[in-house]
Each structure stands twice: as C-alpha cells, then as structure tokens.
Amino acid sequence: GMGSNTLLGRLEMMDDRLVLEVNSAGRLARARKWIDAIPGVSFERATARDVTQDGRPIDDTLPSAPMKMDPAMLRALEKIQHDHLRKWLDESIPMLGGLTPRQACKTPDGRRQVERLVRTMPSLGYPGGSIAPPREELLKELGIER
Fold first, then answer.
1. Cβ neighbours of residue 119 under 8 Å, at least 6 residues apart?
2. Which of 7, 13, 28, 88 has its CA 20 to 30 A from that of 19?
3. How far apart are the C-alpha atoms of 25 and 49, rounded to whole Å?
4. Which residues, 6 or more positions from 101, have their beta carbon under 8 angstroms from its beta carbon?
5. Which run of H or of E encompasses 29?
6. Do residues 22 and 9 make contact, with C-beta atoms less than 8 angstroms apart?
C-alpha cells in the first residue's frame, strides 16, 4: 500500500494468466478456493517473500495525507491517455509482427492477440489514483465487441 493504506490483494491479467497478489497466507488460501472454482482457470504456483518493517523503503512506512488531483489536470491526463491509445491503434507493433492493431484484427488470431493486449493494458497511475484505459472504446473501434 501507500502510506497508511493497506493493500489486501490485487488481481491482474498478464497475457493469458490471472495473477493474484495478496499480503497473507490466509488470504491466499481463501482466494485459492475462489480461483479454483473459475471454469478454465487452474492454479499454477505460489511464491512468497518476507516483507518486514525494516525491509521496506521509508516512504512506504510513513503515513501520508491523501492527495487530490486538480480536476482540470485529471481531465488533461485522461485526454492525453485517450489520444495516445487512439494513435496506438495505427502504430506498428513488434508483438503483432509489425502490423498495426487495426491490421492484425483482420485475422481471427490477430484479433485474439489485439484483444488480449487491450484487455491487459495497465492503468495510468498518478499520485493518489489511476486512470483506466478506454478498453471498451478501443475494442469497439476495432470491431471487437462482446
């Protein structure tokens, strides 16, 4: 977590893997039951690391005041992210064999790859929050709708 916040767990899609990060063995056991019940999802492995008060950076141990983003700045960041991702649709992507996402969507395999890329795009982080990419808008623009 950041400052006085405590992160209990985080789910993230990485390619075709669902990655779960929790802060205790008990939470892992409870989450494992939930994960094992999801059709088509299988548990791969667990790794552990010891995070002690002495091992964390000082900025992670001090309480911090909540930060608020100026609304105009937040709108500007959202626009920058939106414009960047719209341009990305027409950029050559090495992972797609040099094709643009639009070009790759012309084949079923390319469409699956692009959908995975869009659905796993990370959020844009800023102090005090994050801005999710406009995933559904991008998928709609590419003709990939659910």
1. 13, 135, 139
2. 88
3. 11
4. 88, 89, 90, 91, 93, 114, 117, 118, 142
5. helix 25-36
6. yes
- 123: its two tokens: 């959020």
Output the CA angle 35-29-117, nearest 5 degrees.
Answer: 35
List, in sequence order, every beta strand (DSSP E) within 78-137: 124-126, 129-131
pLDDT tens for 47-66 read: 776 655 555 555 555 565 66
Neighbours of 103 (CB within 10 A): 17
Output the pLDDT for position 4: 54
- Buried/exposed code over 22-49 (b: 16+ C-beta within 10 A; e: otherwise): beeeeebeebeeeeeeeeeeeeeeeeee
Q: Is the pTM of this model over 0.70?
A: no
How far apart (Å, rounded) are the C-alpha atoms in residues 10 and 8? 7
d(CA 120, CA 113): 11
Residue 87 near residue 101 (C-beta atoms within 8 A): no
